[in-house]
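Contributing new complexes? Match this layout with zinc ion.
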Amino acid sequence: MSTEFPRFVDRFRQPEYTGKNRCTPCTIVNVTMAVFVSAGLTFVTPLLGVVFFAFSLAAIYLRGYFVPGTPTLTKRYFPNRLLRLFDKHETATPAPQETDREPEEVLTEANVIASCEEIDDLCLDEEFRTTWHDTMERVMEEGAEKSDLSRILDADEANLEFEEHDNAFLARIDGRRLGQWESRAALVADLAAARVLGDRYDDWDELTVDNQSRILSGLRIFLETCPECGGTITAEQETVESCCRSMEVVAATCEGCDARILEVEQNR
Ligand SMILES: [Zn+2]
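Output block (do not edit by hand):
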């Protein structure tokens, strides 16, 4: 077979909607519509129905959809709860369990946060902040990310692998995902806070790893300077687009190195 044909086909491909970017709800909607429209056409002219069905399946395969505007329409009209089931945008924080301790409660008991002196809000204890930053520096100097994390997760350090892509920093063992952070800076902040909390709060080791992780990411809200570059961290509302939906998040980002420190989805 000549190589011309695949190249001709390639011109129709839309990689942004196929392969790992494929939107499953969009594909389901489109295949369903292809079946109904083709069935209707078959009553008029059987050949037309068959041709239409083949054409629309080819379009769905190569372009992700054949009904124009599908991804936008799906984002707009499908219930968010349903889209979340198919969503590939991985969020870092595990879902809370009933037996979990509330982050605010634990951090208050550990004297890490307390009511602010001047405004009606919670503030980070200044002594904790200093120790936390010193520990972050130590974690980075020692290059202790893997050894600290494998101890916390009770995993074999030699098999632990880190993987970094936009706004996600993943820890894997044999391809299995063990944990996810917004960035390496976020991981360093958590590991340092875990060291300090382990010394400061007697029941720390009794908490589940997921519960610890919720507490640690809650603590990151109070971070003002970046663990990696010392830059100022600013929080703002953003819209994050993933394959099938757009969501409103509050994102804290370092102004110096662009590291994402925290991302919290709004109105879940
Ligand atoms: Zn930074």
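Reviewers usually confirm one structural detail per submission. For this one: The pocket of zinc ion is lined by residues 185, 226, 228-229, 231, 254, 256-257, 259 (CB under 6 Å).
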